[in-house]
Design brief:
single chain; elongated
């Protein structure tokens, strides 16, 4: 479907939902859900990189051996499993297809913490690691805010669908045709 995130986050995107067809509202909801699923995946990748950088910073603070890369690799499953349960009630995924991260945001993430830097953290200076961590944190906050905006749009679209069924403007029979 490849929908532009900026289009979905535009303040006028929803417009007057009452004037839109049920098919259009469902399409809009699906677009928002698809992009949100990609943002969710992106956010998990950002958090993983942030956790890995944090482990390296903690290792340095504790005086660990920079050549002990096997210890860092051995710690990764535990470090990354910290994020398997998100705080709060959460939402069940609406799409079962693999998520596609927004390409521009994925590229931005790779500029913040390049794959080369992530592969060789012991070679990075403390200042560089702190810069990476700060930029990843800011990026994660921005992606989370965008997800919240998409959830707000999904909720508004779902509320309009529900209203139409509740008020008799739409019927379940129309789904069977």
């Amino acid at each position: 479907m490849a929908v532009d995130l900026d289009v979905l986050l535009d303040p006028g995107y929803l417009g007057d939902l009452r004037s839109r067809s049920m098919d259009e509202i469902r399409r809009m909801r699906a677009e928002c859900q698809e992009v949100e699923t990609g943002l969710s995946l992106l956010r998990r990748v950002v958090q993983g990189r942030l956790d890995i950088v944090g482990v390296e910073l903690a290792r340095r603070a504790e005086g660990g051996d920079p050549a002990d890369l096997p210890a860092l690799i051995a710690a990764l499953p535990e470090v990354l499993s910290d994020r398997t349960a998100a705080p709060g009630a959460g939402r069940l995924p609406q799409l079962m297809a693999p998520a596609e991260m927004p390409a521009d945001l994925e590229a931005e993430l790779d500029r913040i913490a390049t794959p080369g830097q992530m592969a060789d953290l012991p070679a990075q200076s403390d200042d560089e690691l702190r810069r990476i961590a700060a930029e990843l944190e800011a990026f994660e906050r921005r992606v989370s805010a965008q997800r919240k905006q998409l959830f707000d749009r999904i909720d508004a679209l779902q509320a309009e669908i529900t209203r139409r069924y509740r008020e008799g403007e739409a019927s379940v029979d129309s789904l069977l045709q």
